[in-house]
Every structure is written in structure tokens, then in C-alpha cells.
Amino acid sequence: MRGALGALLAGFTLSAATAQVPDQPEAEGEVLQLPVPEAPPEATATASGPVDPADLESWLDGFMPYALAQGDIAGAIVTVVADGEILHSRGYGYADVETRTAIDPETTLFRPGSISKLVTWTAVMQLVEQGLIDLDADINTYLDFEVTGVERPITMRHLLTHTPGWGEQVRALIMDDPERLQPLDEYVRNNIPAAVYPAGEVPAYSNYGTALAGHVVAEVSGQSFDDYVDEHIFAALGMEYSSMRQPLPEHLQGLMSSGYMRGSDGEGRAFEIVTAAPAGSMSASGNDMARFMIAHLNRGEGLLSPETTEQMHTTADRKLTGVNAMLLGFYEQNRNGHRIIGHGGDTTLFHSNLHLYLDHGVGLFISMNSTGRSGATGRVRQALFEGFTDRYFPAEAGEDLPTLDTAEEHGRMLVGNYVISRRAHQNFVAATALLTQPSVTMNADNEISLSILTDASGTPLRFREVEPFVWQQVNGVERLSARINENGEVEMFSAAFFAPFMMFTPVEWWRNGALLMPLAGIAAAALLLTVLFWPVRAIVRWRFRTRFALTGRQAMAYRLSNIGALLPLVYAAGWLLLITHLMGELNRLDGRMDGMIVFMQFLSVLPVLALLIAIWNAFVVWTGGASWFARLWSLVLVASTLVLIWFVIAAGFFNFGLTY
Questions:
Q1: Are 93 and 325 in contact (CB under 8 A)?
Q2: From CA 465, how far away is CA 482, in angstroms rounded?
Q3: Which end of the chain is more exposed for a tag (fewer CB within 10 A), N or C?
């Protein structure tokens, strides 16, 4: 999870998409630089497998301390399993900076965020295996209330593949006050998101969907979700230092790592409460995560039958060719020609990744207890995954695919602004999608770039077309793929990393930031100049003892036009300040700011009033014999007010209610 407004581009809290989206450098211009791992000598390979424990320990000892120090991260746990055993599990840095408490891989608990979903999906598949849940039945079959407002029935398969079609829901998703925590059954009843896409069509990562699946587990099993997971997952695998309960059971509370925004803060933050608990509430030690990885790598041993495990690991919901797909709960992370599945997870303070190398019986888990600086946790996780994979599972030498002759034609089809499928659509949070629209550009070599896919220096990656509507990263392994509709238009596209759970879709013309943002800037400048010149003119008249020339209706129109110019500026600025404050600490979305949100919704009358004033002022000016400049400027005020109303509508500010 990230607090900055722009970070919402990668998804809101409990995101699965943070590892490869670099945050922008901070104000001081620092960019986190990580060491580039070197390939090991051939002699380090062992007979038991490709990962040599001594080489792994040496490599991690060189990489992790430096990465944590550069990223201002207090501590991390890195766990590697191979051939059914823990190959390496070690803490780096501190579980508590103030007391300098070391990390115990067996007992120190971290918060793996959305990796918790894998526990929930495993529980679901246990009940599927028992015939108690049908993946393709209407989800309402298993609920004690009804999910309505959808174009077609939503199924458990849709929840597993993040295709129920719901928009983003962030209200009360994460908080620091356990007294405000809603029970799971209340949460899923009271927070049904608005349907945006027909079920099954567009991947759009959904925390609510996983929470709903957890509620189904409780309804079908007759146990609470926490009780079910304790008995059928944690106890079954001997995961004694794991829990989905919030707050933690008393015997585990003293084992929880502190969480930090930055390691240098010194003082840890409060234990985070995830309201959509099945989507991200787990606390677990590194060794317990090893037990979970081993179970899945060993064909579900202790959890699922081999057949159900294979179904979970291989059933792909592939929306695009040539890139990764969503599986049943896991998402593909294939690299260098190797089958890899996994999940990412973030709370506000903890940031984690889990990877399973299915053909090699190897698992890799990392969790960090700080957000750090300059997008540190995303870069550390990605560098670890890429370095580990390239070091121990390198790609075989292959043929370099040529750039297609259609590169220019197809590249130009993609050029433009997009919105991500995982976003808020009908409320003020939609402003984040308007302000952070990713864009596709093309260079003179007919290579395309996606603005949010950058290297460590912030330079956009370049891609060339190697298959029809499939682009390969220049000197890299990332891929882009697009789907074209019957009219020859881009329907959706995504990068290999995002494709399992998030698509980029063309933005409607009236929401297109490339058009709207410059116009809104010009309109705001025109209104601001009007407001500023009001007192300036008064001062000039006072200084030179000049009489105010307007009288009667014209004088009133002049004064009201200046007030009217101020109203939409105050309204838009108020919303932007409020959203920036809310997204700065996502636990502020727990409902404590609802009064301010309602107040801003009440102020929606201001831009409407401003438009009425601007129209009346134009009428008075044009019928009162005013100068040509006054007439022209009256039209500028009308147009500028209309543009700002267009902006606030596109940003979702004219939406009422507290569902967000």
C-alpha cells in the first residue's frame, strides 16, 4: 500500500501490483540505486538443485543490508525453500529499531498483505474439492444476502480471477483503531461496490471480492472465517506463528514486528487493521510462510489433493496473448522461460512478495516492515525477484525476434492516454485516475513506451513489436500485449506484470487528461486572474483617486463576476486538498473524515452558482454597451467556469454519498 496520491495508479491498499511500478523520486531528487547481481560461477550449482545454499547466503548478505540501508527500511525477512525444506530463512535489520530487536525467522511476525489472499483462495479450493462450492455457480447461492446491480451473475471463479467487474472500494479498507473494525459479515453486506464491467470480461483487482469469498467460506463451512483458517490451514501445516485475527491473539502480540514509514523514524506505528480481512489481514513468520510455500510446491500436501492443486496452479484466465495470466488465486510471474506463480502484498507499512518456481520446487518470500523512501520496497522486491531468477534460473539462449513491419501502424494505434481497470469510477476517489493517467508514446524507431514502466532512473522502458500486437522490452524481458476489437480499435492492453489482475483501457474523450488537464489549467488561470485583478484595480483606483465607473446593474454584475470566479477555484482546490490528505495516510479513509466529505459534497452548489453568475454577467455586459474587452472576458469567464465544471464532473466530485 502506498500513501502518495500518484501511487494509486498501481492500485490502492492491499495491492498486488506494486512491485514493478516505480514511485517517482522524492523532492530531493534521490533515486534508489541497487546493486546489479552477477551470475554465479557454474561450480555453485549443486546436485540437489540449482540453488546453492552457500552461494545464496553470500549473495543475500551482499544485497539485502545495502538495499535496506539505501531504502531506509528497518528490517526484512527473506525465506527460500527448495525440495520440501527451508534452504534459507533469515532476518535483516531490526524487528524493532528502538530496542534493536533482531528478527527471528521462526517467531517474528510480518504482515504479508495481499499474500493473505492465497490462504483465502486455498480455503475456497478445499471446499470446492469437497463439493461444497461450485466455481461456476451464482455467488448468491452461498450468501445470506444478495449481491445485486450486476449485468450477469458473479461466480466464485470470477472472484478468484479478479473479474467480478466491480470498481475500486477503499472506504474503511485499512485503519489503526480496532474499535472501528466491522465484522466480516457486516463489511460485505454494507460495502458492495458498483458494477462497472460485465462479470468475467475485464480483470480489475478486488479486495472486496476476496472478502466476499472469505464470507462464503464461513457460510459454507459453518465456522467463522478465522476459525476455519486456523483449523484447516494453519494447524494443518503447523503454522504456529500465523494468524488472520485482528487484533492478534495475546500469545502472538509480543512477536509482531513493528511497522514504520521509514526505518529512521525510530518509533513504530500501530498495528494495522484490515477490514476486508480475508484480503490482507494475515500476520506470519518467515518460517511459517515457508511451510505454506512447501505445501503448494509439494502438490498441496497437507492442504489439497494433487489434482485440486494442479487445477489451482494451471487454470488460466488469459485475456491477452504473449503475457502472464491470472490463475485460480495465484498470478503468473513467468520469467526466463520458467513457470513461476505468486502474489504480492502491501499494507501501509509492510511490503511483501511470494514466488513459487513450480518446475524446480523452489519458493522465495520477502517481507519488509517499512515503506522506505523513493519507492524503495517496490524496487527491492523487484530487484530480488529478478536477481534471484536470473542467477539460479537463467534463460536459455534463444533467437532474437525481429521487429515486425507493422510496428509503426500498430504502435500508433496504442498511442494515447489510458485508465487502469482497477480504479474508483463514480466518486471523488476517481480524481486519482484523472490526475495520474498513464500514456503510451512512440519514438522515431517505432518503439513504444508506457509512462509508468520506467527503469531505476525514471526513464520509460522501450518496447518493439515482435508478434502482432505483442511488444518485447528492448534489452529486457517485460512484454506488452493489446487486444483489438472488430472495429480495429484498442479494446485493452497490459504489461506482463499487470496483465493477471489489471488492464489499461482507452479513456473516454471527455475524461482524457491530455485534453482536459491543459484546458482546466487555462480555465483556472483565467478565473484566478479575474479574482486577483479585482483588488489590484481597487488599489489602483485608490492610488490615483479614480472613481469606480460602473453603476447599478453593471456594478453588481462586475462584483458578482469576481466572486463567481472564485467559487469553482475554492471548490476544486478544497477537494484536491482533501483527497491529498486522505491518501497521505490511507487509514484516514476509515470514516473519520466523512463529515468533511459530506461538507464538500454540499459545496457542489458553488460551481453551479458560479456558472449562473457568469452567464448573467455576460448578458449584462453584452446588453449594457461595455467595451469589447469586457465583452470578450465575460465569455472567457463563462467558458472557464464550464471547463472547471467539466473537470469536477470527470473527477467524480459531483457524486453524493459515502460509498467510496
A1: no
A2: 11
A3: C
The residue type of 342 is G
> Could you give the angle at the alpha carbon of 148 between the alpha carbons of 145 and 153, nearest 5°?
100
DSSP 475-494: TS--EEEEEE-TTS-EEEEE
- Tell whether the torsion through CA atoms of 652, 654, 655 and 658 is positive or negative: positive
At 166, the amino acid letter reads W
pLDDT surpassing 90 at residue 278: yes
Q: 248: buried, middle or exposed (CB in 10 Å: 19+, 13-18, 0-12)?
A: middle
What count of other Cβ atoms lies within 10 Å of the Cβ of residue 288?
26
Cell numbers that stand for 526 in this block: 483565467
Q: What is the pLDDT of residue 45?
A: 41
How far, in Å, CA of 310 to CA of 436, rounded?
A: 39
- State the cell numbers at 465: 513489436
Reduced 3-state DSSP string for 130-192: CCCCCCCCEHHHHCCCCCCCCCCCCEHHHHHCCCCCECCCCCCCEECCHHHCCCHHHHHHHCC
Given a cut of 70, whether residue 42 has pLDDT beyond it is: no
Q: How far is C-alpha 168 from the geometric centre of its chain's CA atoms?
A: 10
496-537 pLDDT, tens per residue? 999 999 999 999 999 999 999 999 999 999 999 999 999 998
Residues 6+ apart with CB under 8 A from 509: 515
Ramachandran angles phi, psi of 299, nearest 5°? 60, 35
What's the grid cell of residue 455? 527503469
Residue pair 295/303 in contact (Cβ under 8 Å)? The answer is yes
% helix, strand, coil for the chain, step of 5: 40, 15, 40
**Burial class of 351 by CB neighbour count within 10 A (0 to 12, 13 to 18, 19+):** buried
Nearest 5°: phi and psi at 490?
A: -70, 120
Q: How far is CA 170 from the centre of its chain?
A: 11
Q: Write out pLDDT tens, residues 468-485.
A: 999 999 998 999 999 999
pLDDT in tens, 230-274: 999 999 999 999 999 999 999 999 999 999 999 998 889 999 999
Domains defined for the chain, CATH in brackets? 7-392 (3.40.710.10), 407-507 (no CATH), 511-650 (no CATH)
* Start-to-end C-alpha separation, the chain: 17
C-alpha closest to that of 430 among 589, 641, 654? 654
| Helical pair 306-314 and 116-129, crossing angle rounded to 10 deg | 130
Picking from 631, 140, 638, 45, the residue whose alpha carbon sits closest to that of residue 391 is 45
Q: Residue 345 and residue 368: Cα distance in Å, rounded?
A: 11
Beta bridge partners of 372: none
Q: How far apart are CA 154 and CA 413, in angstroms?
A: 33
> C-alpha cell of 8?
494509486
pLDDT at 216 over 50: yes
> What torsion, rounded to 10 degrees, do the Cα atoms 115, 118, 123, 124 define?
120
